[in-house]
Design a protein that fits this description.
This protein is α/β, with parallel strands linked by helices. It binds shikimate-3-phosphate (S3P).
């Protein structure tokens, strides 16, 4: 796709797609609960459909119409061995969460993914699961991964890497494991799994003490079905928020956005950058905090973010880097090691593509430094995305300011934001 300069700003009420993280969990948790769950506003993106198809392949009856699904759950032990390998496309969340869940089932499964997912680390979830007795046939530490499902042992496990996917995988394994499992998290990560499980009647207790969270899960307690309304995704909103902030004349409204405090770092970072964002009508829907956002073109200033911030907004650095490229003054984003193992090596692709756009940008250790220019003259207008949706959308937003950026593998956008191009163009964008 080619992203061109826009004439006027980004304008209007924009309906942002539903939250990807919550959508995955809205399939997984009802599928292992007892009873009928109705899920409204499920994100119908490629990643989420891979999770949905995995559960259908394991015998769960799921009816789908428009953006609603009905799941007929039959309990923790009701999943059946699929008759072929489970293909998860590009979806890291499906891979890590299903590895945890399937480790404590009593059948073998093989998880597979696309080229990008097959190079992402799986040992981070396999290793702590092995402490519970989980068995795998795999030497590479990447997909394809054969999971030898078996009865696991309750354990006390401290998570070393800040990752909601690892935490959620362990919690899902503990749900089907006799006794009380104790999962310790030293970093805050998104807590959608815990929130949803509580509303499904799980025996789960959370204790926070001195920057450490203890999650106690009593296994073998059947979950009860519940209905879920999935809110809109803050990570997907970020592309429109930043497009509006950097393009003169912009004003947008985004409704029903999930602003869960374990994930709202992007709003805090943009506040530091002097962004005009009004957060209103804060309320709780299906256990998650949502609000409406009003965003206006702003004269942004550069900012420094410490490594702690990365836990609250890991997915938003690509698009935040675009904001930084149009701010006044240097920005420094520290401690971005985890960005290297996302759908692509995002740290490297942000650096490379910003540099090609003519921006003075460097990575020192795991810190990203962006020194904006008054004017950008691209040295190379071909944006490399390595099939990473967030890199593609971030540089589409860059293109709205500097024009004529050719973005490869734009199909990756369907993993999280189907209709992005149409929505962006309807709001004033110019993507061909
Ligand atoms: C996710 C957790 C994050 C995030 C990913 C979605 C989730 O990954 O980057 O897009 O739904 O749990 P990590 O847990 O690896 O940080």
């Amino acid at each position: 796709m080619i992203s061109n300069k826009i004439k006027d700003g980004i304008i209007g009420n924009i309906k942002i797609p539903s939250d990807k993280s919550i959508s995955h969990r809205s399939i997984i948790i009802p599928s292992i609960s007892v009873g009928i769950s109705e899920i409204n506003n499920l994100l119908m993106s490629d990643d989420v459909m891979h999770t949905l198809n995995a559960f259908k392949a394991m015998g769960v009856n799921i009816e789908k119409s428009n953006d609603q699904i009905i799941i007929y759950g039959k309990g923790l032990d009701s999943l059946k061995k699929p008759n072929k390998n489970i293909y998860l496309g590009n979806s890291g969340t499906s891979a890590r969460l299903l590895t945890g869940l399937l480790s404590s089932q009593t059948f073998e499964t093989v998880l597979e993914g696309d080229h990008s997912l097959s190079s992402r680390p799986m040992a981070r979830i396999m290793d702590p699961l092995k402490l519970m007795g989980a068995k795998f046939e795999n030497v590479s530490g990447t997909l394809p991964l054969k999971i030898i499902g078996k009865k696991l042992n309750k354990s006390k496990i401290e998570i070393k890497i800040p990752s909601a996917q690892i935490k959620s995988g362990l919690i899902l394994a503990a749900l089907n494991t006799e006794g009380l499992s104790h999962i310790i998290e030293k970093h805050i990560t998104r807590d959608h799994t815990e929130n949803m499980l509580m509303s499904f009647g799980a025996d789960i207790k959370i204790e926070k003490k001195n920057n450490q969270t203890s999650i106690y899960v009593k296994g073998k307690k059947e979950l009860k079905s519940n209905n879920i309304n999935v809110p809109s995704d803050l990570s997907s909103s970020a592309f429109f928020i930043i497009a509006a902030l950097i393009n003169k004349g912009s004003k947008i409204n985004l409704n029903n956005i999930n602003i869960n405090p374990s994930r709202d770092g992007i709003l805090k970072a943009l506040k530091k950058m002097d962004a005009k964002i009004i957060i209103k009508n804060q309320r709780t829907v299906s256990g998650e905090i949502v609000a409406d956002l009003e965003v206006e073109y702003s004269n942004l200033i550069g900012c420094e973010l410490d490594a702690e911030m990365a836990k609250f907004m890991i997915d938003e650095y690509p698009i935040l880097s675009i904001a930084a490229a149009f701010a006044r003054g240097t920005s420094v984003f520290r401690g971005l090691k985890e960005l290297k193992v996302k759908e692509s090596n995002r740290l490297e692709l942000i650096r490379l593509n910003l540099k090609n756009c003519g921006c003075d940008c460097e990575v020192i250790n795991d810190d990203l430094i962006i020194r904006p220019s008054e004017e950008y003259i691209p040295k190379n207008n071909k944006i490399r995305t390595d099939f990473d949706h967030r890199i593609a959308m971030s540089f589409a937003v860059m293109g709205s300011k500097i024009g004529n950026l050719i973005i490869d593998d734009a199909d990756s956008i369907n993993t999280s934001f189907p209709n992005f191009i149409e929505k962006f163009n309807n709001a004033g964008g110019n993507i061909l």
